């Protein structure tokens, strides 16, 4: 179909050697006529995603699949500017191999060019892109030249180093606590002052502490009910109650371990006259309490009323807090007004783990909520606290709330939402969190949310000397103090003074790679624990860095430096750098590097870096080159079928000759059919 659309010409067959003989024209196709798709048209007329040609797949097959006719194979070729289908169309692997082996003498070792790989600096920033074609010089870099002018390390023979010590001042050799203090909110700063300089230390604070206070960060506003307090960290499992005044959170009180009495999950036994009751009307003396939902009810029967709670480990408990409402004759319950009978009492009983309480072994502790005169009392939810003595601080304890008698089965005297067991003051806990959530009873607001934090009071555990400083004389003017931390009881710090030794290098020696210093003597008791690192530069000992000045020295101890290493020799290829230039040892000379594969400044390492060319590039063989080129030819642009008719029509029009633009001899341009 392609050739059918090419323009016809009348071709003169007469021999060139007889230019004046009679012409003998035949009609032929002008297959030298070329057609290229306009790039603007191509941008929208072809599919965005290229088609990948498989092995043995031919243009006519693709044309059949996409355009419904194999005759449009020329559209496939023209769209992709394929001039010679024999070599421009992708070859299957066996044909490709034969083609490459016929084209090159040794395609598997002959190098066509070199390509770079991607390389990143220490920050992950790309400093060289992959795929750039480079030459052999880049690949073989770096290059070196012999350097006879620079001052460079030389091969040396070993020589023993010698150092002596002397002392003309004192230094701080330690810091300690004479007492640990209490109530620190944060670790204080350690300040060491005196005639010397440079001594520093840090204070360590305990991981646990007692609850010093609950700090209200923001009081919020618009609260009609106290927010719900949730504790985490060391106080997880315990509870707290927020208090509000005029819509602001003013205080948060720890409630300890909470027994929720809005359901029966933490009730061991219900006695007569106790049950989990629904919310009441909050009106009169028999309407039931309106306190937001279900609650533990003391009512519904005459005579003795009691409830027993599940056992608790009370070893660190010294207070019970009952969150309850007491009847007042108008809040849904009757006033408990018979003193000694209608009071709410608390009793306990200690048993072995897993052993049930004995009904006849309860020990009465006293009144939690007192009976009051009829019609009196606040008639609202309140916290009622009861202090516990040391006798109850045992590992497995049952508590029960007990009412000796009542006015009648129709009357509720108490509605209880929770019973909380509060820990003994000073109980140490881990750091804790506190969250304030809106109370479900609050139908709107608050305007602003409150927030708080748990402040622990902790003791200091020690002091760590971080720098001994220098020049502290005899220590008579030296002081150590602790600043900050807001303690309840300040800790008492102290410092240890020791002789400050200094090193004098008598002989620097030679051929040292590393060395150790050994100390002996120093007077009565020979002191102890003195230690130092040996400083080495270019194979020579240049001094000591003391890590510990020891204690109890009356004189400077003797110091022995270990023997030098083997003679200084360089291996062939060994490198050396002064930070600006680089050299390598050839066995007899130093060669300076003059070219680099890649050289860049690494901001993460804060220095210039060099990378060899063969690390960041690779050779591409003739076979790999041709194979890659063949793979690229597999990716084709396909003309969208909806533009096919337009394309063919434009192709037909473009192949018509135009008198003014086609420079073909008039003798050849006979027709433009």
Summarize the structure.
This protein is mainly β. It is built from nine helices and 41 strands.
CATH class of the largest domain: Mainly Beta
The name of the CATH topology of the largest domain is: Jelly Rolls
CATH superfamily of the largest domain: Galactose-binding domain-like
Number of helices: 9
N-C termini distance: 15 Å
Tell me the major beta sheet: 7 strands, antiparallel
The proportion of residues forming helix, as a percent range, comes to: 10-25%
Portion in beta strands: 35-45%
Named CATH architecture of the largest domain: Sandwich
Number of strands: 41
Radius of gyration: 48 Å
Q: What shape does the CA trace take?
A: flat
Report on this model:
- By secondary structure, this protein is mostly beta strands.
- 10% of the residues lie in helices and 38% in strands.
- It folds into 4 domains: 130 residues, no CATH class; 146 residues, no CATH class; 69 residues, no CATH class; 158 residues, Jelly Rolls (Sandwich).
- The protein has 9 helices and 41 strands.
- Strand 36 and strand 37 form a beta hairpin.
- The longest helix has 12 residues.
- The C terminus is likely disordered.
What's the SSE blueprint?
Blueprint lengths: L7 E5 L12 E5 L9 H7 L5 E2 L6 H9 L5 H7 L5 H4 L4 H11 L7 E6 L2 E2 L5 E3 L4 E2 L1 H5 L3 E3 L15 E18 L9 E5 L3 E9 L4 E9 L9 E6 L4 E8 L2 E13 L6 E4 L3 E4 L17 E4 L6 E5 L7 E10 L17 E7 L12 E7 L12 E6 L9 E7 L10 E10 L8 E6 L13 E7 L2 E11 L8 E5 L8 E16 L9 E4 L10 E7 L2 E9 L9 E4 L13 E3 L4 E4 L4 E4 L4 E5 L4 E5 L1 H4 E5 H12 L1 E2 L7 H11 L19
Helix pairs in contact: 2-3, 5-8
